[in-house]
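Good morning C.,

I know you're traveling, so I'll keep this short. The sequence:
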Amino acid sequence: MRQCTFCMIALGEDPDAIIVYEDEETVAFVPLQPATRGHTLVIPKTHASRLWDLGGEDAATVMRTVLAVADSLQRALQPEGLNVIQSNGAAATQTIEHVHVHLVPRWRRDRMVLRWPKKAAESPEQQRITAAAIRVKLEGRSSAASLPVNSPEDRRQHLGFIQGVISRMASASASAKTWLLPIVTAAYGFAFVEHSWPIAALGIAAVAVFALLDANYLKQERSFRALYDHVAGGGPIPPFSMNPTVAGPTDNSRVNYWPDLQDWKSWAIAPFYSPFLLAGGALVTYIVGSS
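The tokens, ready to paste straight into the viewer:
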């Protein structure tokens, strides 16, 4: 299919093509006239004119690349929205006879215009008839026709990567507690001997800083545990993604590094750091009161 424009790109024979991603089965590139900043096309390297011409494995591969590119667009450009458009046939505005998926980052007041009809195309009665006709064609189809998930080996490796992050967060939390003890002991002890409340206040500040760090480690550990459970359960997720926000509903693709209330109230934070803060407060009160 060397006369196909997209096949030429897939074969690496278009020197003007701006490629953003390529693997053995798919290519993602910038269209000649992008509708918005970051507008990207994803195509299979195997030539197919229409979506229904793709095999199940090719369709799954294309969708995995679509998910990976969509995630990258979100993290790189932080758009306010994203359109994923796949057209088949001239009536659906397809102009290149090669299956392709548009990923169009969206912002309010951008140049892209998409409008749905205000009125339904069918009456409720006709909708039921149409749905029944579709249902008949779907009956008897094997579940194998659905998109396959990552292989068990890929999932095991993915879980191993996530477990590595969880272990590092737990180790960092233990290190924070270990470092805090001698610092607080030295600060409070010196403040008591020298009768210096500023040194005691410095010790309190150290406790607060270490508590913040430790609560952050706990928050990240929890988020990656949720990601671990999501991957282990076979949930839809880009291959080997280490973005924990994909494991739960959120409008923000970036991890929020500020601890939440549940992190502060955790048995690993409040019960451990509160006595140090209370002791520091009592020491400052004693020193100031006896001055």
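Safe travels,
E.
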